[in-house]
Structure formats: C-alpha cells, structure tokens
Amino acid sequence: MWNHSFRDEKDTSGCAISGIMSETGKRFSSDLIMRSIANMRERSNGLGGGFAAYGIYPHNPDDYALHIMFDQPSAQEVTWQYLKSNCEIIGEEPIPTRPSEAIKSRPLLHRYFVKAGALLKERYYEENEDDLIVRIVMHINRFIDGAFVLSSGKNMGIFKGVGYPEDVGRFFRLEEHKAYLWLAHGRFPTNTTGWWGGAHPFGLLDWAVVHNGEISSYGINRRYLENFSYFCALRTDTEVITYLFDLLMRKHKLALEITACILAPPFWSQIQRKGHDEKKLITALRMVYGGALLNGPFSVLVGNSKGMIGLNDRTKLRPMIAARKNDMIYIASEESAIRTVCPSPDILWHAEGGIPIIGQLKEKSCA
Amino acid sequence: MKRIYAREAYCLGCRLCEINCMVKHSRSKKIIKAFRKERDILQPSLQVENSGLLSFAVQCRHCDDAPCIDACITGAMHRDSKTGAVVCDESRCAGCWSCIMVCPAGAIRRGKERKVASKCDLCVAEKMPVCVANCPNEALVYEER
Amino acid sequence: MRKWLVQPEFDITRDQERCIQCQVCVRQCANDVHEYDDEDGVVCSENAGCVGCHRCATLCPTGAVKINQSKLDFRPNAYWTPSIIRNVYKQSEGGGILLSSMGNDRPFRNYWDMMVLNASQVTNPSIDPLREPMELTTYLGRKPDRIEVEKSGNGFSLKTKLAPQLHLEIPIMFSAMSYGSISLNAATALARAAMEMGTFANSGEGGLHWSLHPYAENMIVQVASGRFGVNAEYLNRSAAVEIKIGQGAKPGIGGHLPGEKVDASISETRMIPEGTDALSPAPHHDIYSIEDLRQLILALKEVTQNTKPVSVKIAAVHNVAAIASGCVHAGADIVAIDGFRGGTGAAPTMIRDNVGIPTELALAAVDERLRKEGIRNRASLVVAGGFRCSADIVKAIALGADAVYIATSALVAMGCHLCQKCYTGKCNWGIATQDPYLMKRLNPDVATRRLINLLRSWELEIKEMLGGMGVNAIESLRGNREHLRGVGLDQTELETLGIKPAGMGA
Hints:
Strand content of chain A: 25-35%
Number of strands of chain C: 23
Structural class of chain A: alpha+beta
Largest sheet of chain A: 7 strands, antiparallel
CATH architecture of the domain at 171-420 in chain C: Alpha-Beta Barrel
Order of helices and strands of chain A: EEHEEHEEHHEEHEEEEHHHHHEEEEHEE
Number of helices of chain C: 15
Helix content of chain C: 25-40%
Number of strands of chain A: 18
Strand content of chain C: 15-25%
Low-confidence stretches of chain A: 1-13
Structural class of chain C: alpha/beta
Distance between the termini of chain C: 67 Å
Shape of chain A: globular
Helix content of chain A: 25-40%
Strand order of the largest sheet of chain C: 11-21-20-18-17-14-13-12
CATH topology of the domain at 171-420 in chain C: TIM Barrel
Largest sheet of chain C: 8 strands, parallel
Low-confidence stretches of chain C: none
Mean pLDDT of chain C: 94
CATH superfamily of the domain at 171-420 in chain C: Aldolase class I
Number of helices of chain A: 11
Mean pLDDT of chain A: 89
Oligomer: heterotrimer
C-alpha cells in the first residue's frame, strides 16, 4: 500500500529499525516506539529485539548507568567485586522486569550507577573519565565469563533480549520510562544464533547503534579497531559500527559529515568530479581510513546524548525513510512504521546513500 | 591504398612469410600437401633479404606509377579496381619478362609452373595478406601511409 | 674433455610426415639444435643443446616438432629424483656452483591453492562489477593514524599534510627486473604497459636506460647493493625509490649479471666496464645494521626533496616480521617482501630452492606483526614472489597486502617458457638476452599489448571475485581474513595465516 523501500526483494525480510526523537528534548513515553517497531514485526524472526532510551535517568544525569547481564550469580559476584575496586558506586539495583510468556530463559539483569574510581583515575592519569569507563566495559566483556555490559552511558540505557521487540519492551516495563530519544530494533539474524548480548542496540558510553545489514568488510574493520584498543567480543557487525563512531567522533574529534564520508565515502568516479580542496580532502580520508570503510549493505541508526544519525551504505542497498513533524524526527526501515505513529508528517523522504540524516538536540534540557 | 610495409627492427628472418605466401597461392592450400606434392612449382611472392643482423621481406610495392604496367606488351599487368593492387592476368601473360626487367624492386619472378610473371597480389580475397597475418613478430604491417 | 655424465634433458621428436623442411626451426634456435642437411634434404636435430624453450615447436607451421622430457628414464626413486642425480653429474663434471634462473621449482607446499574465497548469498547481495562501481584504486605510502580537518567556507578542508603517495589504478605492479638481466625491448614493454594501466614498473638494479626516461613517472628505481647507475638525477627521475636489501630468489646473496650479458648499452647504463661480471655484493656495504638503513632512507628522501616514497625490499626469511618492523621504524614508506618463489636472472640453484620462506606465510606474519605494534599504517605492504593468477592476488590482499609485484607472470605473458636458462644470455624469446639477433624476437609493441591484456584480464577477474564477496572497494578486502578459509591446512598453518578452516562460519 505504502511506497516501499528500494531493493528489498533481495532480503529475506532483513531486520527492522526505528528511531524517534524530540529535538527540543521533550521526554515522551515508549508508546510511540513500541507501536512503530511492532508494525514491522514481519521483518524479525523473534530472535532478538531491543531498545535504547535517552533521558530516562533525570535524577542521575551525571552518573554512568551500567546495564549488565549475567549468565549466573557467580558472574555477578565477580563483576561486583571488580566494580567496587574500580568505581565509585552511586547506586545499584536489578533492572525492573515483569514475567512474560514470550521471553524464555532470561539472564540476570542489573544496573549500576557509577563514576570512575579514584584508584583507576590515578593509575591511568592520562585518560579521561570516558576512556576509563570504556576500559572497565572492555574488561568485563573480555575477561569476566558470563557477564556482558549492555549499555554504559549517562542518563541513557539499553534494554534488549531474545524475543520480538514489542515483547522485550513489555518485559522491561518500558512504559515506566520517558525519554527524548528512543531507538528500537527487531532482529532476523543469520550469522549468529540468538543470544541476549547479540541483540541490538549495541552500546558503548552513550552510543547506541541499531543496524540492518551485513558488513562484508567486518574482518578488516575489526582488525583496524584492534589497533586502537577496541576489542570486539561479539561476532556481530554492529559492534564495529559502534566502535568506529566512537573512534572517529569522540577520539579523533571528526565532525559528523567527515565521519559519514569515511564510513560511506563517495566513489572515486564521483570524487574526480569535485572541486580541488574537496577532492584532496576526501582522497586523504579514503587513503588514511580505508580500514574504517563499511562495505556491504547497511541501514544504521546511531544515537548519542546529542541526537540521532541515520546512515545508508553508499550503494543504498537497505531501506531508510525519515520524516519530521514539529519538533519530532522519525527514521525507520519502512514508511508504514512512521505513518502508524505520525499519520501526516510535515515532510517525508528516503535517505540517500552515504548522506547522513541528522536529528539534533536543540536545548540542553536533559543533557 | 593499403600496402605491406616491413619493419626491419622486428624481422627475425624466419621466412614464415614466404611459407604462408606459398601455401596461400598453392593448389591444395594445405601446407603439408602443398610442400609434399607441389614443392617444385611453389614460389613465394616475397623474399626475405638479409645481411648480418639486418633482414626484411621484400615484395611488390604496387607502385602508383607502376613501370611494369607500362612495360607490359599484352596488357596482362593491370591494376585491380577494388584494391588498387597491381596484378597479372595470367590468361593474357605472354611470358616476355619485360615487367621483370623494369621492376625497380626486383619483386617479379618467372613463374615456376607456367611461363607467366609471378608477383604479390595483396591476397585480394582476404582481409589481410597472409604474410602480414602470420608473421610471428608482427614485423610486417598492412596500412595506409 | 667431453662431459659424459651430463646427458640431454630433452628429447626432440620430429614427425617426418609433417615436416616440410622449411627450416624455420633451424633459423630460430639460439642453441643450434636443428640443422639442415643439404645432401639428404632433411632437417635433423641434436638433443644435447635443447633447453626446452619451445621456440621451434611454437613457430613450426605444421606442428611437426615436439619437445618432451628425456626418455632416458632412471629407475623410479622418490628420493634421488632425476634432476637431483643430474645436478650431481653436472657438478662432478664441471666443479662449480650450480646456476639456475627464474624461481624455486621444487614441490614445497603451495598455500595459495590451500585457501579458498568467500561469496555472498541471501543475506548479503553479491555485486555485479559490470553494472556497479568496483573500486581497485590503491595508494601506497606512509599514512598518518588520523586526519585533522578544519572548517573552510561552507565545508571542510584538509589540515594534515600527507606524505607522498603512489596512486595505482590496480593493485598490481611489475617487479624489479634489471636492464641487463632482461633486454631493452622487454624493459620498454614493461614501462609502457605500466604507464597505460596506471601502475608502476620497477627498474631493478640495472639503472634506467635513457630511452625509458619518458616513462619515469611510472617507474620505481632501485638502489641495490651494487649501486649501479645511481646518482642524484637517476633518483629524481622516478615515481619512487626502492632500496633493495634482498630478493626472494636468493636471500643473503647479491645480484649477478654474467659478463656475457654486459654489452655497450648495459655498460653505459650501469656505469661498469663492458664484458665484466656485474656482481652486487651481498650486504650493502654501508648498511651493516638497522640504523644504517635509516640513514640511507633519510639520505634518499633528502636527495628527492621528500617528494617520493622510499621503499625497502626484503627477502622473506625466518624473522621477516621483525625485519619488516625494523624497516618501518627506520622510515620506509613501503615495505616490499619477496617470497621464495620469486624469480631471478641468475642464482645458485641451492640457494634459489632452499633459502627463504613462502610468500603467503611471510605476508601473514608481517601484516599481523605490524598491526600488533600499531604501525601498520606507517608503511604500505607490497608482496612479491610467484603470483600466477588473479586468485593468488585476491588472496594476498585478503591476507593484508596493499599491492603485489609480479615478474614471472609478466615474462610468461611476453612469451617466456620457463626453461630456466636466462643466465646463459641465449633467451630464444628475446626476453632475457642482450644478443642483438635474439633481442629482435621481442617486438615491444606486441609485448606491451600482451602485458596490458594480462593486467586487464586480471583486473576484471579481481573485480568479479570482489563483487562475489559483496565488496565494492578494495579497502574492504585488504586484511579482511574473514573472507579466506583454509583447506587441508594444519592448526599451526591456520594460525600463522590467521584464517579459519573451511566449514567454520563467522
């Protein structure tokens, strides 16, 4: 009925992504995102679903909220000891959930509000607090068996698991939260079997990434990131996307347009036709950041505390539609997922390959 | 018009041009049969000249002002209207050898089979003369100059 | 004294039904193997001189001549093979070092044929290179870890200054073959083909002949231990400068051009007397340690005003990873690694066949080592040594190479039949000779065309394979070992190569 996306006849339904944001920072309930992602149920197969929400902890806006899952209590014990010696613990509690028929064999889910501890700060005095938290997350993921960090940002959280996204959302009692930016994902995995940590979104610090696609350059992206001490514990493509955004935007301090140009650069034949300075710049970016080029079809939504970015691969092999109405911006895999929550947007358009769609927080109301 | 030109830098003196010319103008057109049965009457229309390291194939230049056409007493030697090549109509050739005597390139010979003048005809029925097509080092070229 | 023990290695059979006594074979054999007997009116052949180059068989218009391995069979012996026995005979009769040419011909394990490539299906579409862009553009040179960008007008402009880079349209270059080991016609064809295809040819250690100066923008000039032809002009007349520390065919020893091949032209280009053997010493006598190498690299950069990348070519030996790392730290912008299948104009057979390690393993080890040290971007990695087809090249790039050097395949494309007698200077195909009569056999126009055809065919095949893997830019294959799987390799080999066994998924 609606005008569907490009070339999805090649996919076996693929995955589903959706993102909704209020650019004025006005927090709203999970109802919109739940309806949006539920509309795309056919795109998933029930082996993964998840949400990222920004602005959900207004009472602890400056603490890092670590959402961690554990296979068994011993893993939780070991993690707790580790956190106690490396962090200043502000608070900790189980993540509120409700029993659900649709969600089977769940891990233990806990959240910790922390700051980097004095000992850690002293030991790695040249690193800033973000780097120290990354260090803690990498340690838990790599070295503590049975423990996995779902999210590690300030005033945000990732809720994900094995099940249809709307079921996962109900399991996590998302209706109790309000956020100014919601991301959602429904999974149809083909490369890895369903496990809780493998669902999307994937997060590090306040980055959250949901992804529909397959990165054929994964092998080199992963090795490239290892040069910069990012270790990919999972075997999913989303992990490298998240780390690449963190590396390029946070550590190398490159603007978003430059980052998009590195991840999904124009073709050499297009570069040849650009002006002298632009040609020189893009050539240099491709030369230096070849290992960061994301090849293969992808449709990705990246969230951080300042906003949301939608990006398609440069040959536009996966769908992405965006819309705006008043202060709200919607980005999703299908037009119906937008129209079901926003029947008459001010504008609606299809993303162009390699050109990012940007939703930006205009006021600092929820930081 | 297109003519055959030899590039002496690339001529190896292998004489495969002579062999291919002979086969093309033989009766059987098959190399082994021709060399076995027609050896005595085979004659190439071009000849590889060599001296020391230098070698190249010499054949009729199909001159614009061909002296052989002027010298021919029967009108057998004429210019083919399609290709511009100078050819001998053997049915009219008397075998007087006037053409052989006037040719500045020494490119005409006495026919071995019958008493007629024998010379290069630019392989009129082919896209490219067989000597050019079969030179292993592309020392012969067929082009306008 | 006649060398009785050394018997002919090839048998020449002439089918008398097909031979037309045209004598093309007589005229074309540089070893005077065929002869026309005027009296009897037949062509006859002497097996003794035949080297198996197929010149006669190729040009014979009736296909009457056939060359086979000598039918003088030994009793089957898997250990004392005929070639090993013959080597002993040669040495007992001759009393010298066995010389050979081209690359290692022994049956060592061939890893290219034990790795297989991926293709996308269902979840990830493969890409059709005839309809979609498929990018092979490659830049070789030192690259920084990151780029600094500044705002400029409505957009951005580049702030970081980049080191000089070589721009390649395809990730294949012609490896070093010195003018002297190959003829001028061959060297010209390589330079021309490189220019046409937007890539580079390496001059080798023979200097750059004046007629090749117009191709300087596509030439990488070599500074080898003999420093033949090296002066400031030579260095600046190039796209890049390469310091040759070693080569895969003969690690640890220097170059050798027999005096027979040093004619007036070679003498002028190399700046040595005519007729003298051109022996390059084993080490550079001013590079006895890694810091000396650094000094030379800096000197070369100074002479070329830092406008050209400096490459260091090393042979693949046991600690190649550490040596490569040292070269990168010493300032090399490109490190070229030559594996033990690399070819040569002349080398002692024992060294050619027994010294050095396979290209595949060396490449995997160096790439991994440089990444572990965090210096992989500081130098581009070029590998050489036995690339026979485009699949080998794709696998090399997947293992981590930025580009490859080809030599043996280029010579074969021009007509070489791998008879391994280049050191005699009597190359029947006009490639590895300075004899003016034999040199004519290689028409540079024809040779250039053949080289361009080879590179174009491989370019198309590489694009097809990339498209099959769902990749449309070569940066995404480079070092991406996920696209390789091993078949029939043991655990250690899989680990050294850094690849998984076939059957294992993501």
